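Protein modeling request. Please complete all fields; requests missing the sequence field cannot be processed.
Requester role: graduate student
Desired output: 3D structure, token encoding
Chains: 1
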Amino acid sequence: MDEKKTGSYYTPERVIRFMVRFLAGQGQNFRRTLEPAAGDGRFLPELLRQPGCHIDAVELFEAKILDMRSRISAPELHYFVGDYLDYAEHCKECYDLIIGNPPYINLKNMDSQVREKGRALFEKEHVDKSVMQNLWSAFLVASVGLLQPDGTIFFVLPAEFLQVQFAEKLRLYLEQRFNNIKIFTFEENIFPEIEQHTCLVYLSNCQNASPYIDYFVYASPGDATPLHQSRIEKNKPLKKWSNAVLRDEDIQLLQDCSKRCLQMGQLGPCAPGIVTGGNKYFIVDRDFVEENQAQHCVLPILQKNSLIKTDTIVFDQRLFQELQNNHVPVYLLNLAHEKYIPSGVLAYLRRVGEEETNHIKLRDRHKCRNRVPWYGVPIVHYGDVFFFKRSDKLPHLYINQMAVHTTDAGYHIRLAEGYDAASVVFCFYNSLTLALCEYSGRYYGGGVLELTPSEFKSLALPYTRVGASDVNELDSMFRAGAPVSDIVSFVNERTLSESLSPHTIHRLNEIRQTLMQRRLRGDVFPASG
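Delivered output (529 residues):
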């Protein structure tokens, strides 16, 4: 059976024991329990050991139901074969506990009927249909409607749920319905066989209690005591639940310090770079330019941050030359208003214009067919500084000494009069701004951090004019591979130290380390001290 089609990634038994043990410790009522995606039934034995437990187990595939019945049977256990979304629509029962690991099936692999049922469910529950990106989200929303007023949902979910943009409206929906939210993460990857970090999400209601989000980090599911625990009560609704790894006072400190600073968007016009409609076709290397004598109709351009192999804060002619020497495509065909296009370039365009991706010719792609000529890429002005939206260890802002363009993977600021590019870049690498990058952005597999244009523009910057010697020293530290902590301390001394106490700067640095290490190590225990 195709795992991508069925979303069948079974929960390790020690995770199940952790979940049931925690519920029992909370005094959970198991009398009416629902397992919405029973799979091979591995949740059932542990649940049946709980006093007074009665279980309804739903599973889509009849063969799995038959297998479970042959191994797990009890008067308190009832099996139902069918689609859980259909079950939820027609079910008259209300449950004390809904527990399980819903299927992870993205839209691309989802059956069209299931997709439409999910969207109809979201519309009925007044949740934006754009949230319906994966089947687990529909299982979650369907389960809310089947709970007793004091009932509990306890699901294994992908860690991306805590912070990706498409799930933001779903998180808000859940915060409006539950006042007791708990998130459990583990240092150990509990699903090592799949490239997916996961978490446990507990949703319930406590009578006459203020709403809160608890965040726990355990070394492994076998541990009884968390390595870290934090609670958010004041800063609700919380835009990204992954930020519950901080405390209320941490978030308040970020907000208070930000009010003292400029925002990146206030430095001047800020916008993403150039959208080509096909980077691999419209961005060429030096050999192509020279062979076709096309020097007059190209512009220097960078496609992504990972192409820059030298750690630096200055993108200059030397770096650009290195990329050319390594045959990296760094020239954009600038043909929208070009009267003379070399014959070799025209022949190239005729050929690639017919190349198909998913049965669509390049010239007929959405971006290309809506411009005249179809290969005339609209040019966006380069900035005095630029930032790539995705980064790994450290977000990167560059002085654009080379006057280079980027694709829309980069954001450019054309600085208003009175702001110095070198000073802006220098000041960026302080504890507050870097902490806000982590707090505002989201992270993906391998710890890649991403900020949207609006998130980048909202970053606070403690701007001050700095001398050339300090800028050169910072660049030398980057090029020498100095530790991030040394770089940040150096910049802090010349920026934050002018207005904040050493204790406050130390706290900001702890927040930055907490968020950065959570990202780089995959939802794990934050840095201490």
